[in-house]
## 1
Amino acid sequence: MRLQDRVAVITGAGSGIGRAMSILFAREGALVLAADLDGAAAEETAAQVGARCVAMRVDASQPEEVRAMIERAVGEMGRIDVLCNNAGIGSTTDVVDCEPDDWDRVMTVNVRSVFLGCKYAVPHMVRQGRGAIVNTASVAGMVGVPKRASYCASKGAVIALTRQVAMDFVKQGVRVNCVCPGTVDSPWVERLLAGVDDRAAARAALEARQPMGRLGTPEEVAAAALYLASDDAAFVTGTSLVLDGGWTAA
Ligand SMILES: NC(=O)c1ccc[n+]([C@@H]2O[C@H](COP(=O)([O-])OP(=O)(O)OC[C@H]3O[C@@H](n4cnc5c(N)ncnc54)[C@H](O)[C@@H]3O)[C@@H](O)[C@H]2O)c1
């Protein structure tokens, strides 16, 4: 029970990695606020988790909604010990084909959401003298992935912001880290493959890109986030924990 009675807020909790985090964190004793733009998906996560989870429809890129999410955790659950800024969207173009509005949308959902989560959660964590933030970045923030211009830029920004916020609040007991998954077998990948002619070949190419020859699982990313969120990582801040089947080591 590594998160016994801790309060954890998780964005993008209605699917994939965020849902796996919600399930694992609750199993480890946390009270979970599962937030997602898709309110019904968040409700489904809460139903799967059970009594230790409440759902909330939140657009993680909108200041008033993020503020309300954090206030609800503190108001109804008493505190906020863990924030997982996990909501994110993808992109599939190179820099030439990327439309400015699409660039802005990806940066807004993937980066502004992390900024906003930190902005509104950190003051409570400082007051408590303790808190852990886990951002979901990606190996795409570390290597150049073809046709992912805005996505790579956004995840690089998440890695940089993680380090920066960690430094500002290291003396106040707030730890800030990120996970950097390689390709993970979530509904995200299903959507990616949906538009492809030869799905099996495209999936095999994604698997081959990672030296272990397989995709990661949402549960594996959730386990890494649990480590960073828990006291096991008490000496860890500002770091990027890579889970990519060896992709970036190759
Ligand atoms: N799946 C992968 O291969 C992979 C790899 C590396 C990093 N990631 C990152 O992991 C995170 C989760 O991805 P996933 O694979 O679980 O994808 P997913 O699509 O299964 O889940 C993402 C969830 O985020 C929600 N969401 C989207 N925009 C939102 C917003 N503005 N506010 C609140 N919620 C919003 C969606 O409704 C969805 O439920 C993302 O940040 C993604 O970039 C995924």
## 2
Amino acid sequence: MTSPHHLHATRTAWALHTALTRLSELVTVETRRRSDHYLAAANQLRSPVYGVRHATGDHADPVGGVLTAPDATVPARWADLSQTAHGRLSGIAGMFRANPGSDPHTAIVGRIPHLTPSTAAILHKHLTDEDAWIRAAVRLEPAGTPLVGVSCPRCGVRQLQVHTDGPAEAWTVTCSCVCVGQGCRCGAEGAVEGVAHIWPRATVITGRSA
Ligand SMILES: [Zn+2]
Ligand SMILES: [Zn+2]
């Protein structure tokens, strides 16, 4: 079923996907840099100019400089963080009975439609926490912008935010007003009391379900 909790969990999963993609890009750049560093050192060791490294190399010997510059100068910071994120997401996938495999994020997303609303709410909390620390690490602001000129379907105030993570058809719109549950004018399927209003973007813009 779909409830506001499911929509919030799905939205946060898309945000997390964006954060993980950024982290993955940083790992790629870092891996290339480390590999370049290693190859440069290897080339210098083999270089006919410098010849084979001898114990007699003095301060002017650039090979000596390479040998005394360990890998610690190019730490695998992003790779380590990516490993941590992967491990944590695998743990979350397991908690929600999704088989994490090599791609726990996809496994989690696949489980969302099968969760009860209250379980989707707990998953949303976990995903929010993961999204927050990864974004803080990679310095990525949340993707979103005010939805100009459109009134909230519930409270009528023009303070809607559109969240632009993932493909456009996955974008959602939120308001700061909260749902009063069954009978709320938002008309959300599975309306939950006390949960911030959230809609698929197409619903708000066209006034009907996507
Ligand atoms: Zn509102
Ligand atoms: Zn409502």
